[in-house]
Design goal:
Cyclic Phosphodiesterase, Chain: A; 30% strand; 9 strands; 227 residues; alpha+beta
């Protein structure tokens, strides 16, 4: 059963998103689908999805694309779970290879004792700016995040999360235009609020320097969970 705090978070996100659709108050991405240059880069620990979950997500996205073809739909290769925004993405932010290697070695020393994280993904939810899949996870992720939040500052490394998340969602689409069929789109979300996308055990995570959408990656290193 999903932790009550996580369930409440997802409910709050869904309530805001559904209200935004009903009131024509969606938040449109200011970069996607425009010529505006995007130089926001961050340092993130993330987890990738296995093929069977991506396949199930893509099946549902086809229905969304039929209704709203002009929105931005995250390619399967870009979809991920954010474990932690170690240094949140900011415009013009630069990371050297040396800085990345220092974080890599630190995180390897922390994660080597962490257990694999068990995931179950089920149900769509919508925020004012994006369509997402809800992810539930084992206590191992909570413990891992706590260890990172304690160990990184203790090692005198910057930790600059955008916010200390407890979420385990996957962003699968972003709004770039007004919805052409808002009621039908909202109905699709509501009809798939509990749809099962699958489960898996995550035994490795990737440390990356990437852009806001995870479609451009400058540096990447996989780190195994050995606990």
């Amino acid at each position: 059963m999903m932790d009550s705090k996580l369930a409440d978070l997802y409910q709050q996100i869904s309530a805001r998103g559904q209200a935004a659709i009903e009131n024509n108050a969606l938040e449109f991405d200011q970069y996607l689908g425009t010529n505006r240059a995007d130089d926001r880069w961050g340092l993130t620990l993330l987890g990738h999805l296995p093929a069977h979950i991506n396949r199930n997500i893509s099946f549902v996205l086809q229905q969304a694309k039929t209704l709203e073809p002009d929105q931005y739909y995250n390619p399967a290769v870009d979809r991920h779970v954010t474990i932690m925004d170690i240094v949140g993405a900011q415009a013009g932010q630069v990371f050297t290879r040396s800085q990345f290697s220092d974080y890599e070695h630190l995180l390897q020393s922390i994660l080597v004792d962490c257990a694999p994280v068990h995931w179950h993904f089920s149900g769509l939810m919508v925020s004012p700016g994006a369509l997402m899949v809800k992810g539930d996870y084992s206590p191992a992720l909570t413990q891992l995040r706590l260890k990172l939040r304690q160990a990184i500052p203790a090692a005198n490394f910057p930790l600059a999360e955008r916010y200390p998340t407890i979420s385990g969602h996957v962003t699968i689409a972003r709004f770039t235009h007004r919805l052409s069929h808002p009621h039908a789109f909202l109905r699709l979300i509501q009809e798939n609020q509990t749809l099962a996308f699958g489960s898996f055990a995550m035994s490795a995570m990737d440390l990356v320097v990437h852009d806001w959408y995870n479609c451009r990656i400058k540096m990447s290193q996989q780190i195994s969970l050995m606990g």
